[in-house]
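hey all, quick one before standup. I had two proteins in the batch that finished overnight and I want to keep them in one place so we stop losing track of which output belongs to which input. First protein below, input sequence then structure tokens straight from the run.
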Amino acid sequence: MSFYSLTFAAFLSTVVFLYFLVPEARRTLVLLAASVLFYLSFTPQYIFVLFALILLDYCAGLSIEIASGRRRKAWLILSLTANLGLMAAFKYSPAVLGISLGPIPLGLSFHTFQAMSYNIEVYRGRQPAERSFPVFALYVLFFPQIAAGPIERPQQLIPQFRELHRFTYANAVSGLQLVVWGLFQKYVVANRLAGFVDSVYAHLASSSGPLVALTAVCFSFQIFCDFSGYSDIAIGTAQILGFRLNPNFNRPFHSDSMAEYWKRWHISLSTWMRDYVFFPLCGSRPGMPRICASIMAAFLANALWHGARWNYMVSGLLHGFYRVTELICGRALSRAGWALDPGWLRPVKIARTLLVFSLMTFAFIFFRGENLAQSFHAVQRLFTGWGHLASLGSINQELLGIQSSLFSLARLLLLIGLVEAVQFLQARGPLRPRIAMAPAWVRWGLYYAGVMLLVALASPNQSSFIYFQF
């Protein structure tokens, strides 16, 4: 079910209509039925496997709450083993055992991590075990975010299934604004950038350093707009129904440190890794060596979460190395008492922001490569052909070789500029409330312009979301 289709529009309209039409006691069942139907439209063959896992986690949560001592921990281990085992079977069997179980179920990593966070929170005494099976099943299956998150904690989402939600014009408008912006990011910006990136990677042997570097930048914005676009669609869809999902991105490319970047990029997964991997490994009073080792372990776990590919491992090692280096250098400068002159604060902040973006873009080269050899080939090509920048004709000839042109490149850069312009506007405060306060002719002018741009510029390349494969 493509989000950019009349099918999804009809599906969402029907769900909203039925949800607010039926009595409050039956709304959970309406959402559960809609979520099952949504899942069936992608990977129907795994629905019974998913329900078996949901039943196991539901029983494990109840057992963890009433058990004590070793039995309590045994139920937690059983739940974690079942979830991680299923994810490993699909993700790692082809690479490790040479056996494929078929396509990865929709949103496997996301609903697996969401279910694990539930039982971990029950074990830690921060979340009461859910008695209602439909409510728990809906927590795992909730259709707006099952495919690619955000990964919601039980304390934040489960209570909302018991709240009385009324249809409001403000929620509908605000949610639709976010949905349209998410569709624009994905089906206009990300998909058009994907066509350019794919063409260059198909012709790496003849691509110069400037073109490969530009492609790396384009892929950074492609994956951001692809994933952020889905998150906005999910959050906006939930808001129409009256639910609040946590933001998953917060202008990550404007970060001036690695620590800040990971507070802004894929926030739900970053905080999951922090709370359930990094903190337990660190212990209560860790020294610097243990902190650094825990950081590296968390980033390697993040890499394994994406799949059993050496590309992901190298990318994870790079991210961990960046963060550890920053932490060690920061502490060394702090102990030395070195402070920056106030007049240099802004220039240094800009330079640091560009450095963080450049390092992350370099790490994304390994994330994008189909295999490690291709990724290293792309890195090798980065150091060739920089003399082409002196000749516009050479640049145009190289673009023609990948079925592109200077005009197409300019259009892509304009789309990136538009995304950045919105990011800068968001830096001044939430954008949607400011639109809501504008005169009616301004608001509706923006709405019509946004929809018309989406329809006119949507890429014919209707590829699925990148994170659907995880």
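OK second protein, same deal, sequence then tokens:
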Amino acid sequence: MSLIVQKYGGTSVGTIERIQTVADKIRQTWDLGHGVVVVVSAMAGETNRLLDLAHRMAAAPDRCETDVLVSTGEQVTIALLAMRLKEIGVPSRSFLGHQVRILTDNVYSKARIHSIDATEVTEALERRQVVVIAGFQGVDPEGNITTLGRGGSDLTAVAVAAAVKADACEIYTDVDGIYTTDPNICPDARKIYKIAYEEMLEMASLGAKVMQTRSVEFAMKFNVPVHVRSSFSDVEGSWIMKEDKGMETVVVAGVTLDKNEAKVTLKGVMDRPGIAARIFGALAVESINVDVIIQNVSEDGRTDVSFTVSKVDAKRAVAAARVVAEELGGFEVTTSDNVAKVSIVGVGMRTQAGVAARMFKALADAGINIEMISTSEIKVSCVIDLRFAELAVRVVHDAFDLGVSP
């Protein structure tokens, strides 16, 4: 029999009735003789409720204490689920992150996993117990509770699957798989039944919200097969797995859209060695992730530099850039959040020419101007005006014939 890790998100355990349904689904797997480890999130809306309480107590709540607070959401869910499993005749045991010993660093609210001691989990499995683990949380070397950031339960599930050498990690959610693009934008979007780790990693980082980026990185590093599927049906979902030759025949696997972008422009920057390092070094000190970068050099020894960051980091990015501007004799710093990023992703792009040109033509034919371009071996991203974001997704999706055939 197989060893399976199942993860259920907030919508899947959002009510008592849904927790009961999840317990029934777990029992079906356990009855077949499989070993089962379950990772759960807090009930839908609970983390936001707890964060709201924190901000009502303090203008800038202490991050360590905030982690103590928000981690209680998962504690409620694991207890309720373990109770229900026992009620329907399935032996089970619940574990908090520190009991499993999910060891992390001490970067509160977005901690990174260092190691997992799976000893007690393995012993419980040998007793034929279903192990129920609180997602999203761990413990630092000093014993403080930490959390792994939004979507952290996905990361917990994949990391536990790697630690116990599970045969598969099933991510149960409110959608039945990964699609070629957001079906709310393109109703004819197709389900992708197999997608390479690299493709999913790019899609997650470019705006696809099905899985957290760090969980895909972890799955790829430890070669954990991940099955994304619906909590509300038994249909086959999408497998995220190691690339095979068949995947290379698909030039573009999907189209993503990210509206959480802001563009920062530095005008009149001195064009000399070390300036770019000074500017982006200042952003790195503030832990600001920079995405697309372009530079235009003029004849007067000055240059304009534009780059994108997430909207939540835009104000800090502008502040950091202005500090550098004062130190270097001044340049203008402006920002705009009326942009979006549309991207195509596919491992087949490595061996196909003209893919970018096809995307650019589709946007041009729709009258959509491209402000910035970024490419890698398996993706092309274009920063465009936010007003045309969804239109851009539709025309690019059509250009690569990604829709369901009529």
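Flagging for whoever picks this up: The longest helix spans residues 16-31. The mean pLDDT is 92.
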